[in-house]
Amino acid sequence: MVLDADSVMSGETLVRLAIAMQNRPYTGLIQTVPKLIGGCTIFQRLQQFAGGVYGPAVAAGLAAWHGPQGNYWGHNAIIRTVAFASAAGLPELPGKPPFGGHIQSHDFVEAALLQRAGWEVHMAPSLEGSYEGAPPALPELVARDRRWAQGNLQHLAIVGKRGLTMMARVHLAMGACAYLVSAVWAASLAVGLVLALQGTHVIPTYFLDSKTLFPIWPTIDPGAAFRLFLATMVVVMIPKGIGLILELRRAADSGEISAAPRITAGVLVETLLSMLLAPILMVTQTTAVAQIFAGIDSGWKPQKRDETKMPFTTALYFHGWHMLLGLALAAVTYLVSWELMAWMSPVLLGLSLSVFLSWWTARPAGRLLSRCLAIREDLSPPHILASARACAAAWAAQTSDGTRKDVVISPVSDAEVSGPPSPGWGRDGAKEFAEEIAHAHR
Question: Which domain holds residue 232?
Answer without folding.
Answer: 8-310+362-441
